[in-house]
Amino acid sequence: MSKQSLIAEITGTIARSQDATDRVDAAAAGVLGLNRTDLLCLGVLVRGGPLTAGQLATEAGLSPAAMTAGIERLEKAGYAGRTRDEADRRRVLVAATPLAEQRVTEIYAPLEKLGSARLAKYTVAELETIRDFLGQGIELQNQQAERIRGLAK
Amino acid sequence: MSKQSLIAEITGTIARSQDATDRVDAAAAGVLGLNRTDLLCLGVLVRGGPLTAGQLATEAGLSPAAMTAGIERLEKAGYAGRTRDEADRRRVLVAATPLAEQRVTEIYAPLEKLGSARLAKYTVAELETIRDFLGQGIELQNQQAERIRGLAK
DNA sequence: CCATTTGTTTCGATGATCGAAATATCTGCT
DNA sequence: AGCAGATATTTCGATCATCGAAACAAATGG
């Protein structure tokens, strides 16, 4: 197989990889009974411990108003709890509930476990190649996102 | 750097890579004045030539009703055109306009060009590693999406 | 040529989101 | 101490994307 066609194959594979990621998240959202935005917020909460409503809004790219509504939905579903920050009573701290931790783990732990196991099969040199590939991809995309924004209106 | 920490680093990098992809699409949607769903549809149209409304709906995972509304928006924005299929007049063929082709190319071509150039720097062996890594990742995610769906309710 | 199937649109309802205004609390200044 | 702004969240009203079901239009097969 020629290098050129390998490159073409990889280009297509990158797109399909993004679709696959999307399917995992869609399945997770379905099982949890959440929309994609709320799933994103819950993921942030589970990984990043308690956050204020505002921090969560920034992470998720939501307006304050949308965040309030989203927290409400997570709370009603039993996946998040709200407590006023006693140090600064304007703030509201939002945290994932044990139920959320448990269900998110049930959903994502096997994926992470198998993902790590899969990586462990590679040599260190191969892993470095993969890391660089991904890292440079991020840089490229961030730089291009910047350029695209500059095209504006 | 130990293999174990390399694996951990890559795991985190995968997540950030998805975020970066998301930022590119968000920037593109912003510049085109489209929401994410309509951008997805336009991408399908630009890559996949004219499609019927129904095929487009299936590709995008939308209900027929939502698709009609989406096509309307793309049409109003000047990015898509509708024509009745003369062979089967129930069908409506939707195609990207030249304006859409031009603007989508302006947005994504540099990314693709630089992406390919970047890949060209790797050896064939390295590219095979990358291809396998991505391909196995897709398989893993599809399989896990299936499992997760099975967890239902 | 009518009954059924297929493809799209219309309709009414719902849900997620936004910007702006309202509310609550904190901080700094005098 | 107390007031003026700044900051964090919520409420409000409006808009937009989406859905399911019904309507409509056109094809297909007895």
UniProtKB/TrEMBL annotation, chains A, B:
Pfam families: MarR_2
High-level lineage: Bacteria, Bacillati, Actinomycetota, Actinomycetes, Propionibacteriales
Organism: Kribbella karoonensis
Classification via Gene3D superfamilies: Winged helix-like DNA-binding domain superfamily/Winged helix DNA-binding domain
The HTH marR-type domain, residue ranges: 4-139
This protein's name: MarR family transcriptional regulator
Domain of life (superkingdom): Bacteria
